[in-house]
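A favour, since you know our structure tokens better than I do. Go ahead and set the record down below.
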Amino acid sequence: AWKHAAVWRETFTFNQTEANGPDTTWRVTWDDQYLYFAFDCADTDVVAPRRERDDHVYNDDCVEMFILPEFMTRTYWEIVIAPNGSVFDSMECKKINQWGADLDMAQNVAGMKHAQAVDGTINKSDDTDNGYVVEVAVPFSSLPGYSRAKPAAGQKIHFLLVRLDRTNGKFGAYAFRPIQGWGHNIWNHAVMELSE
């Protein structure tokens, strides 16, 4: 399936316009049931302590998806997955006149599937890792606006792909395209048009 995916190979540090982040390959594709995301992340020190569902997964090495099917509603999923399989997912609504969003962490992405592979040893900083891969399948039926609709070519979805990296006590935030602000800046999200 990944042979026909949209692929990006540049990585941008938040609030910068030149690709200068760690090597990352980002992929997106779809079928009549799922949106698929794949992240191939080079990383010499994979740091991801085991966390409970909806704990602070975003404080570790992880990948992040913001998926906003209908821009006017400002309602979107934030999904964060670490290379050890820890998950944070929250239904969110962007505040108009304030920073951030209203979060509903009680909701989980029903039917989401994910898998991870690590080339190295997680949480062992005295060796050199090569990186990790995360693949995610998000059901269209779990997306706002798709509970009664089917995906079809020509439909548009706003989204953002992010990689968070913690190495030697330093924290970096990167995206597959230049982004101003943070992932909750929905006006900076990309627009994907589903195609055949």
